[in-house]
Amino acid sequence: MEEAVNEKDAHHMDRKLLIDSLQNEDMEKFRDEFLDLHPYDQASFFKELDEETRERIYHYLSPEEMATLFENLEMGDDNYQDVLAEMTPNYAAEMISKMYVDDAVDVLNELEKDQVVSYLTIMDEEAAQEIKELLHYEEYTAGSIMTTDFISISANQTVRSAMYILKNEAPKAETIYYIYVLDDEKRLAGVISLRDLIVNDDDTMISEITNDRIVSVSVGDDQEEVARKIKDYNFLALPVVDFQNHLLGIITVDDVMDVMAEEASDDYSKLAAVSDMDTIDRSPLSAAKKRLPWLIILLYLGMGTASLAARFEATLEKAAILGAFITLIAGMAGNTGTQALAVVVRGIATGDLEKESRLKLILREAGTGLITGTICGILVTITIFIWKGNIFLGILVGISIFCTLIIATLAGAIIPLAMHKFKIDPAVASGPFITTINDIISILIYFSIANLFMNFLPK
C-alpha cells in the first residue's frame, strides 16, 4: 500500500512529463497524464504555465474537462479575466456552462458586466437561466453561494422510485448524501440521507422515513452565519429557502470552507488596516493603492496625537523627564486595546458573543483592565522609583498606566461592539485604528495627571 501511495505522489509531481508532452504536441500522452491528476493538481499545474502553453491546453481539453479544472482554480479578479480572454468566446462560455452553478456564478462575479452578458448570451439557454437566477442575489449572502444542483423527491413516492431519480440526477448533482423531500407546493418538508434510501426496503414510502426536523437558512442570511451553522451541526450541506419555505438551493461544506477562508482573510486584512489581502500584489503601485486609504486616515489621526502632545510643551519644559515615558504609556495602551479588540472580533466572528450578553462582556473586559492596570501600575511605580530615585515620578507613571489600561481595554471592547450593532464590520476597528485612538487617550491622561504632580518632579 505504501509503495502505491508513493507511486501516486510521484505521479502527481511529474510536471516535466506534462510540459514535455505539451512542447512536443503529444496530445494523447498529455491527456493520459493530465486527466489522471486530481483537479486541484490540474489547477496548480495550469497556474504555473505561460499564456502560450495554456492556449495549447485549450485545444487538448474539452470545455467540460476544463470546467472541472476551473472549479479548483483560485485566482485574483484580473487573472480570471486574463485567462478567459485567452480562450475563444464560445469555448469560454461552454466551459462556464459546464461548471457547477455556484462556481460559475463565482467566476462571473469577477468579470465586468458586459463580459457577463456576452457569455450568458452565447451559452446554452438552460444553463444561462440557472446562472442568472443566482447572479441577482446580493453578494456575501446565502443566495450568492448556494447551488441549484441538488436532488429533491416527493413524500408520496417509494424508495424504489426515489433511487431511480437519484441514479438519473446524481451525475449533475453537487452532492447526493442528502435528498430533500418537497410537498406538493415545492416547499421543503424534510430530508433523508443516502443511507436511509439504502437500508430501507424498496416499497417503503418516503414519508415514513423522512426527517422533518429540518435545519435550513434563509436566502438572505449572511454567509458567515451559514458557515457557522454548518460547523455547529456538522452538516455536509444545508438547504436554502425563501420566506415561504420553498427550497431554492443548497450550500455544501466545500463552499463553506471557501467562505471561512475568505472571511478570515477579510478580517485579517482589516485588522492590519489593508483593504484586500486575498492575493499577493504583482506591483508596488497596486499594493500602495490598497494600503494608502487607511494609512492616510491613520496619518491624520497621528497628527492629532502630535497636536495634543504639543499642547503640553510647557509641561515638558518644566519636567523634561516626562518625555521618556510617553512611548511606554502609549505602547501599553495600544497593546491592551488590541488584545481586547481581538477577543471581541473573534467572539463576533465565531458566534460566541450571541451566547454572552454585551454588558457581561464589557464588565468582564473592565475587570480585566482593572486587574492588569493595577499590577502593571504597581510594577512600573516600583521600577521607576528604583531606577530614578523619585517616588512621585513612579506614582505618576503608575497611575497613568493604571487609568490608561482600563480605558484602552474598554475602548478595544466597546468600539467593535458598537460597530457590530450598527451593521458595520467590527474588523474595521483595526489594530492600527485602536492603537492610534488609545495613543490620544493615553497622552491626555498622562499629561493631565503630570500637571498635578508638577511640584514633585525633577526639573
UniProtKB/TrEMBL annotation:
Recorded topology in the membrane: Multi-pass membrane protein
Annotated CDD domains: CBS_pair_Mg_transporter
Origin: domain of life: Bacteria
Segment forming the signal sequence: none
Keywords: CBS domain, Cell membrane, Magnesium, Membrane, Metal-binding, Transmembrane, Transmembrane helix, Transport
Start and end residues of each CBS domain: 146-208, 209-268
Subcellular location: Cell membrane; Membrane
One GO MF term attached to the UniProt entry: metal ion binding
PANTHER family (UniProt xref): MAGNESIUM TRANSPORTER MGTE
Subunit structure: Homodimer.
Protein name: Magnesium transporter MgtE
